[in-house]
Design goal:
With 356 residues, this protein is mainly beta. It contains 3 helices and 20 strands. A 5-stranded mixed β-sheet has the order 3-9-8-5-6, with no helix packed on it. The chain has a 5-stranded antiparallel β-sheet with strand order 10-11-12-16-15, with no helix packed on it.
Length: 356
Amino acid sequence: MNFWRRKNFGWLLMALLLASCFPSPTVTPLPTATITAVSPTPFPTEAVLPATPTPTSSPTITPTITATRPLETGGLAIVFIGETVPDGTNLQPGQAFQKTWTLKNGGTRPWVEGFTLAMVSSSPAGENLGSLDDIPLAQEVQPGETIQISVDLVTPEQDGRYTVYYQLRDEAGTPVPDSRIWVTVTVGAVSSTSSVTTGSISAQFLGASLQGGEYNVTFCMQLPDSRAWFPWDVTLVVDQQPISPSGGRSDPATALTDHKCFTFSYPANGMEPGGSVQLSIGKVTLDPAVHQDENCASAKQVLMKEYPGLDFICGGPGFWYTHLVTPPGMTVEQADQLIMDAMSSAIYGPWVLTIR
């Protein structure tokens, strides 16, 4: 008899590949069922995004300096190492603060006397947070060396979201290619979509920062209970262009609570400072391997009732299920998505957070 076997550890890769394609298929079953044979699907030894973060072993993000902005013509290039006052930091009206960027000379030319960090624009226009037009570099920076550049700023008296953009310029006043940096703060009570609720789950944007060539976004979610829920399909949308994460982790301090925080990283190379930036969270799930037998039995009972003609056998060690039977009109991929969502208690959003 033909049947389908899936490796137990293959669920992460399949869930990531299929979640965006089959969010929640609606099927009108017909009386006759068909049996579909598919080859076993082995799973790799490790995955970038863990589905079950635990309080004792939280995956970490490894900054990759080589994946930063490329060397530009003329021998001038910068590498973003880090910053203070992450994007979205909330301050009080009239509050003085200092923003500091740590930059590395990633080119072949030294940054000599006369190099400046120049303010180039702001949003809203004309509100520059009291910034100087030009900030001289405090020292020469040889290729491979780093420098910290600080700007003293003051928030406006009016509530709102404010951004000031800067660009590195050489001794002749020529902009260094791909060198724009910025500061974004909120003042007072800001009406925005930095916090959203879908169903019984809410998500809140906490902050974003550049570090080691990565754009790190931190957010928290109010979840149904304190179990090890983890978000999936966490996409950064920059000017309507989606960017997939290079890694993600949960905050161990919140792992045992129903209010969990997460940090996801995205390649900063090529990100423009202007325009809109949003974070879209597709769904949250539990690890189906925890109480696997009970999860599979429950999923089978629910799905067979909802989709007459759908059937499968809950597998033993190393298999989620076998002997998949699909009703006419339902693809193998759709059936797999339904089964894995049911086994992992998947809750779909989306939760879309505005970063700027």
